[in-house]
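W.,

You were right to be curious about this one. When I first looked at the sequence I had no strong expectations either way, so I just let the prediction run and decided to look at it fresh. Below is the sequence, 336 residues in total, followed by the output.
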Amino acid sequence: MSRILCWTTRRNAEILQLESELRAMGHEIRKFFADDYYQCCSYFWKKMDEWGWGQRKRAYLRRKREIFAADLKKFVPEVILFINYSPQIISWEELHELARHYELRFWYVDGIAGWREAAELRPYHLAVYDRESVEYLHTLGVEGAYCPVGYGGIYWKTEQKKEMDVTFIGSPYRNRLKLLEELAARGKAKGWKLRICGPFYEERYFWKKYLFALRYPFLSQILENCSMAPAMAAELYARSRICLNIHGIRNKGLNPRTFEILAAGAMQLLDERGDYDIIEPGKHVASFRDGKELLEKVEYYLSHEAEREQIACQGQNHVKERRSMRRSLEIALGMD
């Protein structure tokens, strides 16, 4: 097996469970965190740098370059796996120089359609999580392997007691907020046990909580405004009768949450897709087209337990080998 230096962000390392998954495959791994500066600095320093009055961004990037160089020297990897690489810390020229000494692999776990700089990746093994990105890369003369983000081992659950009626975990995209407010209103009227979690507003600005409550009066009553660790999310999915999956507006394919929910053994209700990958609506998942159909199907499947459990079981069994994180990493590393 290989010594792999994994270039990633802290968030992706946690969500994808990269270290545990790669170690389980027999690889030796070291992580290099390439978090974007603006995700790490305070609002004050972000503005100072934007106005040209601060030097923290330059210092941050310089320090990251030093750490990366030290990791290369100390760990001596055989392979460098770049998760969502962009030329902020090291340039394209430096990247191409690395290719003279190491095997480089690239996996984009977010869509890259429209990113013209991706043409620089033409010489390398490149995997992308959605077919839209594969098609876009072809227009640039770049070969990209279709590699959806599979579920990590912590998501696989069996024989879990169902305690929640409907669960949603995610970020506050506009289309999601509208549907979740409608669900919260109907849930209150029907007495459903709902669990909705995610970083919907910034707690440090106290007024945002009140603005959110004004805009979404029903949702605000039940919302748990927090980020959730993968292990906690897996437990919550497994203990839910229905897990709701609402994609971002730009997504045409399936997000990683799709396979995580299926692995956890919950029945999944997701918005209608243009690309269902390997799953079949009505057999492995249930789908909806709008808010009206969402509420109708929630009510239907909560009152039809046998049908709900059959779909959940079929969905879990179907993705077991096909969409595991191990399978995804094999494609990303060119082991397929």
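Here's what jumped out at me. Residues 3-151+324-332 form a domain with the Rossmann fold fold (CATH 3.40.50). And, maybe more interesting for your project: DSSP finds 14 helices and twelve strands in the chain.

Coffee later to discuss?

I.
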